[in-house]
Write a structure and sequence with these properties.
The chain is of the alpha/beta class. The protein contains eleven helices and 14 strands. The strands form four sheets. A five-stranded mixed beta sheet has the order 3-2-1-4-7, sandwiched between helices. A five-stranded mixed beta sheet has the order 10-9-8-13-14, sandwiched between helices. β8 and β9 form a beta hairpin.
Length: 321
Amino acid sequence: MYIAGFDIGGTKCAVLLAQAEGEALRFLFRKEIPTSGTWQEILDQLCALLQGEMRASYPDAVLDSAGVSCGGPLNSARGIICSPPNLPGWDEVPVTEYLSAKLGVPTGLMNDADAGAVAEWRYGAGRGTRNMIFLTFGTGLGAGLILGGRLYSGTNDMAGEAGHIRMAKDGPTGYGKRGSFEGFCSGGGLRQIAQKYAEDAFSAGRTVSFCANKGELSSVTAKKVIECARAGAEDAVSILRECGTNFGRGLAVLIDILNPECIVAGSIFLRAKEFLYEPAMQAIRDEALPASAAVCRLVPAGLGEKIGDYAAIVASPHISK
């Protein structure tokens, strides 16, 4: 069974081809392009890349279906992308209808956090669980929910927007809300926290490991903070540990409400687990109901950096959810 996947992002989009073999996926082709141009131009370019590769390398392959993974808001039932903030111009895009017509196969659409949850549940760290939460923990913070052995996406695909939870009256901005879970625990939030730390340090006459001077504040990134922490810089380590504590506080809310057996966290948690895990677990022990915390594991995403590829494929209507 040959399946096409489309991973739609704000800065880049990818198209891939995979073959479903029993309980495994075998990836055959992947190509990235910048998210530049109209949505029609981008989808046309991705389809052309896919069809060209299939003609050249897999001439006997017959495409079975396609999946699209994209950030919300969207309507998965109708196959429409509904003006995501990171995709200007993608307004009420009938993406499944368009791709089905171009490729001649049924096409499905899923929120990227939901698709990531299904991917980790079927192929990654959540295999064998019935109640699992997947957290993106990347540029932003979104959650996908597997409850009772099936994906739960809510009434209008908005379930799992954990990043919108208010963590404090004030603080870094995420999801358009100051002091939100996403503000404290995301790549964008970590950048804000590190910039504020550096600004305060420079005003007090102190040096900072991840930023040379005030003129470089705009170039501070979560990646740079993680690199400095790995090099032993205590200021960077302190920022990540505080992020871990806030991550655990947010997870405690989810644990108390949903009582999961496993929480799978991707991206930044995967890359900086050595700094985030223990503070997060301590906050969970401090904040969550003991009986609920005792049955819940916190683990990094098992699919690693390939989770976006898996997510695009599992959005296919012919991959069991």
